Amino acid sequence: MPGFGDPAARVMIVGLAPAAHGGNRTGRVFTGDRSGDFLFAALHRTGFANQPTSEHVADGLRLAGLYVAAVNRCAPPANRPTPAERDNCLPYLVAEMRALTELRVLLCLGAFAWQGALLALAELGHGARPRPAFGHAAQARVGRQVLLGSYHPSQQNVFTGRLTAPMLEAVLTDARRLAGLPG
Question: Is the pTM of the predicted complex or chain greater than 0.90?
Fold first, then answer.
């Protein structure tokens, strides 16, 4: 499943994979599932989205300065993406990153997305040694991009309080600032 968003985006959200009952069903990553509900509400509050919900591909959602993609392109078995699937799908993420000529910030939702983004950047000639470690709000410059980490907005992380709305909004605000977008 391809990503979507502003073709002049300076920020790319890198997720894990389309959810079986969300993006895989609706045709748009983070659309139609609870992770997406949490994410798009925060995107709206931080000025990246024109509305707080994403229900289907024709729902009127528009993103400004932002593109949403995933490391894996299809829903993985048991909702657990594997490194082999990531490696197989990597050329698609690389192609999207290459096409976004204004891209400055990669906001990675989870350690799996962080590792996938590092691999994609290496394919684009921007390897990082030592490899920066993932963490919530972690930042690392790799080539001309800044990698920014956030816990994934999964139900498990949200329900346990590992990721709260203010935490996600703070990371999104950092992404705007790092990309040079008006606040």
Answer: yes
Burial class (CB in 10 A: 0-12, 13-18, 19+), 123: middle
**What tens digit of pLDDT does each residue of 125-156 get?**
998 788 899 999 999 999 999 999 999 999 99
Ramachandran region, residue 45 (left: φ > 0; alpha: ψ -120 to 50; beta: rest): alpha
Provide the domain limits for residue 162.
Answer: 4-179
Number of Cβ atoms within 10 Å of the Cβ of 137: 12
- C-alpha 119/C-alpha 123 separation (Å) is 6
CATH number reported for the structural domain that contains residue 133 in this entry: 3.40.470.10
Contact 20, 75 (CB under 8 A): yes
